[in-house]
Design goal:
Layout: E1 2-6, E2 14-17, E3 19-20, E4 27-37, H1 39-46, E5 55-56, E6 61-68, E7 80-83, H2 93-96, E8 118-120, E9 123-124, E10 126-127, E11 137-141, E12 145-148, H3 154-174, E13 182-186, H4 190-202, E14 206-211, H5 217-222, E15 227-230, H6 236-244, E16 248-253, H7 258-266, E17 268-276, E18 298-301, H8 309-321, E19 333-335, H9 340-349, E20 355-358
Parallel strand pairs: 5-10, 13-14, 13-16, 14-15, 16-17, 17-18, 19-20
Antiparallel strand pairs: 1-2, 1-5, 3-8, 4-6, 4-11, 4-20, 6-7, 7-12, 8-9
Length: 361
């Protein structure tokens, strides 16, 4: 199969022929239909986060099941599925206490003495974030995918697999936005727009979207924002506090910078919660005023929207089909696998929300 391989940090992905194994007892072979080009992949390409190489990148995807292992009971050949990088074992402490997105059990991977899921004529090939979806096929654990209704367009479904689940879940699960709450979202890329949309679905009364690009205003409002602040020419913390007469109850940082994480905390009202969704590069720190904690303000991370994805993702599909979840406008471009490096270049400009690789294009 054709796949996009990262062989060296800082270098473009290479389109190569990669061999894929047959499903083990708890594994699923999927024909990839679509894969979103996510900023998280760029972090690994640029070395902000480490990963063993060479590896097939990609982690936001949807497709059709081609074959299943002997013990698989959750999906069957022909099912349309969304994949999720937070594969779960189902029996560790995190899973049994309802925190499936935090599972790190090795049971969802092949052992060191097993044949690898992926291989190459040039040598070993590593799987990335349990998926490696920049490829024509994926071989994954059964608890890394969920079946969805077949009338859901798979290019839109792919977005749910990471960016949408991360943003919507941060609002609904991690921070538990309630009807009438006030919200600020810093960064109007795919994840930030999903957080705006999730807060709107949850019933937030005021949703302030913040971005450096003034052209993002109309899109943010189409996803549910009530206000937009261009961060290029104003003190965003001061403006949020003035707009809300004291600060917001929930803030979401969807960029991955120390400065914006600090802003997210500083724009809270007493008792508010700042949620850091963006991937702040390894080694960077943030600085907070200690006295602020006397007002019971909180700052916390959010991993993949604190998801229970086998339940959450089919519900998000239903939200889309009923017009509540806005995915159509999130796709800026549909591309071929061979265009993936160009998509990362465009991503750096901030002009696109999401490029999606469509494998029948």
């Amino acid at each position: 199969m054709k796949a996009a391989v990262l062989r060296e940090v800082g270098k473009p992905l290479q389109i190569e022929d990669v061999q894929i194994n047959k499903p083990g007892p708890h594994e699923v072979l999927i024909r990839t239909a679509a894969a979103g080009v996510c900023h998280s992949d760029l972090h690994f390409i640029e070395g902000s986060y480490p990963h063993p190489l060479p590896a097939v990148l990609g982690h936001e995807s949807a497709g059709v099941v081609e074959a299943v292992g002997s013990e698989v009971r959750t999906v069957k050949p022909g099912d349309h599925v969304i994949t999720c990088l937070s594969a779960f074992c189902g029996h560790c402490e995190f899973c049994l206490t309802g925190h499936m997105s935090l599972c790190v059990s090795p049971d969802t991977k092949r052992g060191p003495d097993d044949e690898p899921r992926l291989s190459s004529a040039k040598g070993p090939m590593l799987q990335y974030l349990n998926l490696s979806s920049f490829a024509e096929q994926m071989l994954i654990h059964e608890h890394a995918c969920v079946a969805i209704r077949k009338d859901m367009p798979l290019d839109r479904a792919a977005l749910i697999g990471c960016g949408v689940m991360t943003g919507v879940g941060a609002a609904m699960h991690t921070s538990n936005v309630r009807p009438g709450d006030t919200v600020a979202v810093i960064g109007c890329g795919g994840v930030g727009l999903a957080a705006v949309n999730g807060a709107a679905i949850a019933g937030a009364s005021r949703i302030i979207a913040i971005d450096m690009a003034p052209g993002k205003a109309n899109m943010a409002k189409s996803f549910g924002a009530t206000d937009f602040i261009c961060a290029a020419d104003t003190d965003v913390v001061k403006e949020v506090i003035e707009l809300t007469k004291g600060g917001v109850q929930h803030s979401f940082e969807a960029i991955g910078l120390s400065k914006t994480a600090e802003q997210a905390f500083n724009m809270l009202r007493r008792g508010g919660t700042a949620n850091i969704i963006g991937m702040i590069p390894v080694g960077q720190t943030i600085s907070l005023m200690g006295a602020a904690f006397l007002g019971e303000k909180r700052i916390q991370g959010s991993l993949m929207g604190s998801n229970r994805f086998p339940v959450d993702m089919p519900r998000l599909v239903d939200f889309y089909m009923s017009g509540k979840l806005h995915l159509d406008d999130m796709i800026s471009r549909r591309i071929k696998l061979e265009d993936v490096n160009e998509a990362f270049v465009e991503m750096k400009t901030g002009a696109v929300a999401r490029s999606v690789i469509v494998f029948d294009a």
